[in-house]
Amino acid sequence: MDLRKVKRVAIVGATTNPEKFGNIVLRDLKKKGFEVLPVSPRYDVVEGLRTYKSVEELPDDVDLIVFIVPPEVGIQELKKAYDKGFRKFWFQPGAESGEIIEFSKTLQDADFSFIKCIMVQTNW
Predict the structure, then answer these.
(1) Residue 15 is part of a domain; what is its CATH number?
(2) If phi over 0 gives left and psi between -120 and 50 gives alpha, with beta otherwise, what is residue 13?
(3) Which PANTHER family does this one have (predicted)?
(4) pTM exceeding the 0.90 threshold for the entire prediction
């Protein structure tokens, strides 16, 4: 997956807690110049950004969806996102599961990243 072509990134699992990865990753990508769209049913605003309650609310022109949630939440949001038309998905370490990886193999027209940390992969 070529992250240099990515501009708009949705963060599923965004949080206001500055010690959690849902906030750390959001701030990191924002600082690096990505347009970040937080997704969380818990908050209206995260780091000054309007929050979307679900991937179903996201605008259609999101380039990449990053998952920083437990796998049981991730699989549900992945299915919703795929059904909405999104095709690029990044699962932060710990957000993936065997079920998600197996499901990803059935989606031939989608691009996935597992295990790698997006903060490390965007250090250019």
Answers:
(1) 3.40.50.720
(2) left
(3) COA-BINDING DOMAIN-CONTAINING PROTEIN, CYTOPLASMIC PROTEIN-RELATED
(4) yes
